[in-house]
Amino acid sequence: MAVTTAPAPAAPASTTENVELPVAPTEVRALAAVQRAIARPPVVATARGMSLFGEHAAGWLAVGLLGALVDPRRRRDWVTATAGVAVAHGASIAVKRVVRRPRPADPRVQVLVGTPSRLSFPSAHATSTTAAAVLFGGLVGRRLAPVLVPPMALSRLVLGVHYPTDVAVGALLGAGVAAGTRRLLGRSSR
After folding, report:
1. Quick one: which of 183, 178, 175, 154 has its CA closest to 166?
2. Fewer CB near the terminus (10 Å): N or C of the chain?
3. Distance between CA atoms of 128 and 144, rounded to whole angstroms?
4. Which residues on neighbouring strands pair with residue 119, listed in sequence order?
């Protein structure tokens, strides 16, 4: 007696459309040019250290929690700012999953560090660093974004894991989330 099996039902159509974000040849050329110009051993070592610090926003989250610990008078503000950094990181991951742009994979680009995913757009490191710079800078009374964001963004190019638009949009996303969080901080201090 032969046993027949019914074909498996078709997978349901996705309710979320993925965005196809093409990579312009100029982005690959720019990325390769950055690597040719400055990807020397000390720079790469520093970029790898920055990558580790920024992975999953862990370094910035630790800084925020340390701020909450050492500044009990403004603990609530530090916790809110740290939550803003976490939200920024989460927002970048959500955008990555919708856009699904693959990381650089061109023979002219060397990938010099491992990554937790194959998705490139936007840079979560640039997003969380910008949010942290804006939010923590507001708490310490310093403009940290010009000091922290460009090196982190450049490190992603040096390591060959992001295109220039990945880091630019990541920084914009981080700034947007930080602006919303600052409004919350302003309300909580009233």
Report:
1. 154
2. N
3. 13
4. 102
Q: What is the DSSP string of the chain?
A: -----PPPPPPPPPSSPPP--PPPHHHHHHHHHHHHHH--HHHHHHHHHHHHHHGGGHHHHHHHHHHHHH-GGGHHHHHHHHHHHHHHHHHHHHHHHHH-PBPP--TT----S--S-SB-SS-HHHHHHHHHHHHHHHHHTS--HHHHHHHHHHHHHHTTS--HHHHHHHHHHHHHHHHHHHHHHHHHT-
Cα–Cα distances in Å, from 53 out to 48, 63, 144?
Answer: 9, 11, 17
Q: For the segment 54-102, what is each residue's pLDDT rounded down to a tens digit?
A: 999 999 999 999 999 999 999 999 999 999 999 999 999 999 999 999 9
* Predicted structure pTM score: 0.84
For 119-135, how does the pLDDT look when each residue is reduced to its tens digit (9 = 90+)? 999 999 999 999 999 99
- Using alpha carbons, list the distances in angstroms from residue 152 to 7, 80, 143: 51, 23, 16
Token pair belonging to 172: 């914009």
